[in-house]
Write a structure and sequence with these properties.
The protein is of the alpha/beta class and 245 residues long. The chain contains 7 helices and 7 strands, in the order βαββαβαβαβαααβ.
């Protein structure tokens, strides 16, 4: 398959987990991938470029954006980078608030601004923002859920602004997916993981490839009439109330 031949995709947080899986899927279908992450994307391919950037650092992100604006022509942007912070309301700190806003919201805005000139010039672009099932409510996720909800609001706003220019903007809201970020707190074979899986309508936890396939749907050059949408890839978790993940 080669539906992304000739396309350059920028994936943030691409060095591990969902971001790495998205990158592998894009490469398999012909895309060139620019990884923007704290670590290099460890995939052997002459179509991979790794930019090591702390996306929670606004100045580092601005420098990366300047480089991209001057040196790259990005057709597909996947604002995937994110981290979870488990904090009850009474213990939220300014540092946590600032870090998650910088990582989830500010970096997505800055990098989207950097790739827009090329997308506008070509009359084509795809932006996919990674939100979370947590936006419908989850304990200990005040700032995480708020910033991931902001990504949905930005998605809808950008879709209105950029649709006439041939640029679509969509969001994905994953549920519990087996990555290092999840298994650090909930080991994959633990009783808690099994209980969590049993609570889902699909009776299993998600896999990174579940989210990658959804991302490629939104990124597909042929899918130009879908914009401003949020797809919950969550095994049905958004249909009920999970009190703890």
């Amino acid at each position: 398959m080669s539906r992304f031949n000739g396309k350059t995709a920028l994936v943030t947080g691409a060095s591990a987990g969902i971001g790495k899986e998205i990158s592998q899927h894009l490469l398999a279908e012909g895309a060139r991938v620019i990884s923007v992450s704290r670590r290099e994307l460890e995939i052997e391919s002459d179509k991979v470029t790794s930019l090591c950037v702390d996306l929670a650092d606004p100045e580092a992100v601005k420098a990366c954006a300047d480089h991209l604006r001057a040196s790259e022509q990005v057709d597909i942007l996947v604002n995937n980078a994110g981290v979870v912070r488990n904090t009850m309301l009474g213990k939220i700190t300014d540092d946590e608030f600032d870090m998650l806003n910088n990582l989830h919201v500010r970096a997505a805005i800055t990098l989207s601004q950097a790739v827009l000139p090329n997308m506008k010039a070509k009359g084509f672009g795809r932006i996919v923002n990674m939100s979370s099932r947590a936006v419908v409510g989850l304990q200990q996720r005040t700032v995480y859920a708020a910033t991931k909800a902001a990504m949905i609001a930005m998605t809808r706003t950008w879709a209105l602004e950029l649709g006439p220019l041939g640029i679509t903007v969509n969001a994905i809201a994953p549920g519990p997916v087996v990555t290092d970020m999840l298994t650090t707190d909930i080991p994959e074979e633990s009783d808690k993981a099994k209980s969590l899986a049993a609570s889902l309508p699909t009776r299993r936890l998600g896999k990174a490839e579940d989210v990658a396939r959804a991302t490629l749907f939104f990124a597909d050059p042929d899918n130009g009439w879908v914009t401003g949408q949020t797809l919950f890839v969550c095994g049905g978790a958004s249909l009920g109330s999970l009190t703890s993940i």
